[in-house]
Structures are given as structure tokens and as C-alpha cells.
Related to ADP-ribosylation factor-like protein 3
Amino acid sequence: MFHLVQSIYHKINEKPEYSVLILGIENSGKTTFLEQLKKKSGMNYKDFNKIMPTMGQNVANIPIQNGRLTQQTESDFNRQANKTDMVLRVWDLSGQTRLRRLWAKYFDKCHAIIYIMDSSFDDIEKENFDRRMESCVDVFKKDVLEILNAHDKNIPILILANKQDKADVLDIVDLKMAFNKALAKMDHDFDSRILPISATTGEGIDTCINWLVMRLIKNSEYRPPIYK
Ligand SMILES: Nc1nc2c(ncn2[C@@H]2O[C@H](COP(=O)(O)OP(=O)(O)OP(=O)(O)O)[C@@H](O)[C@H]2O)c(=O)[nH]1
Ligand SMILES: [Mg+2]
């Protein structure tokens, strides 16, 4: 009975909030992606050209309505809070080697992970691109999958092939093969998807948010949101 009353109270007064971590090696576009989410939500956002490498963390609350980002100003958000069905609390961390060990500290409270990679190779030799790609999948395996797996934490993972606005980008099929190989080695059958995006132009972001929201809801029985 108490639970029923509690859940009715939640439904009327509070919004479900899901924490989402944005991870990936340095320079992959994590902070730009977060700023693009703010831009598409009608919030104040940083000029993309002025984004510096992240040292600590950036966090933003992104309102969602009907599985989509909503264009509303921050004051609208406060006034029309009832129109928001859920909030994504999005954490952007640093991808630098020495700071990656901090990622795991956030795993306990997160509901999903977005792993971003730079899929373009316009400005680098193919050989260097292959090395970067290898390191990117390796970090995904060691610093994300193996830790989640060891802690029995089965949460949705969205892999984003970023910088699709550039001229030369790796085929999504090749990316799928590389990431699926890492995923196949785990005990858990992680719910995952690879999608192409451009954090700077915003291309592909609506599809990616839609996938994420559906999976967060699907997984909410196992990993319930926090009501705020
Ligand atoms: N062309 C293009 N450039 C992008 C895109 N996303 C990010 N960039 C550029 O890539 C560089 C790194 O972007 P950040 O958002 O700072 O990358 P990050 O992953 O947050 O990096 P760290 O904070 O160091 O871990 C910047 O010069 C961005 O402008 C994109 O979609 N297209
Ligand atoms: Mg950053």
C-alpha cells in the first residue's frame, strides 16, 4: 500500500531522472555533444569553437518530452516542468589517459553510457587512424565493458561514430565489427547500438536520444530512475 501511495505521489509531483555518462577517448567530441544537447533543448550553450579539453566534469539536465529533446528556454523549463516526462542528467567526463580511471566512480549511479568516438580520418594518416581506432576499442573494452561486467551492471550502451560531417569517415559496418567483437567477449548481453552523428551540426542526435530514452524506459525495472 505504501508503495502504491508513494508511486502515485511520484507520478503527480516528480519527474524520473536518469543519469547518463558520456565517455570516450580525448578529442572524440564528448563536450561538443553535451553542448549540442543544450543547444537543441533551447538552453544556453558554449560556442563550439571555444570548447577546451575537459579537466573535471560537465553536467547538464536535459528535459525530454515524448521521447525527444524539447526546444524550451530554461525559464520555460521551470514554468512548464509538468510537460517534461523525464530528465536526462548527462555527465561529460575527461577522456585523457590519466583521468579515465575516474570514470568507474560514476558507474554506480548511472543508467546508461554513451561512448563517443571520432570516426573521421581526413587529417591523419590511415596508419595513425587504425592505431587510434584500436586504442578507442581497447579503452571501451577495458575501462567500460570489463568494469560493468565485473560489477554485474547491465545497462544500455550507445556507441556514437562522431564527426560524420567530415569528408572521410570510417564505414559504420567496420565500426560495428570492431565494437561487437569486444561486446561478444562479455558474460552480459549488453543492449547496445552504434549510430552515426555529428556533434557540431547536430545530425543524427534526435535518433540517438530516441534510442536512449526507449532503452532507459525498457531497463527501468532493473535500474529505476531517481524521482526529483
Ligand atoms: N568536424 C567536427 N569536429 C568535431 C565534432 N565534434 C567535436 N569536434 C571537434 O573535436 C575537438 C574535440 O572536441 P571536444 O568536444 O572537446 O572533445 P572531448 O571528447 O570532450 O575531449 P576531452 O575533453 O579532452 O576528453 C574540437 O575541436 C571539436 O570542435 C564533429 O561532430 N565534427
Ligand atoms: Mg571534453
Notes: Residues 146 and 186 are 7 Å apart (CA to CA). The longest strand covers residues 57-65. The mean pLDDT is 91.
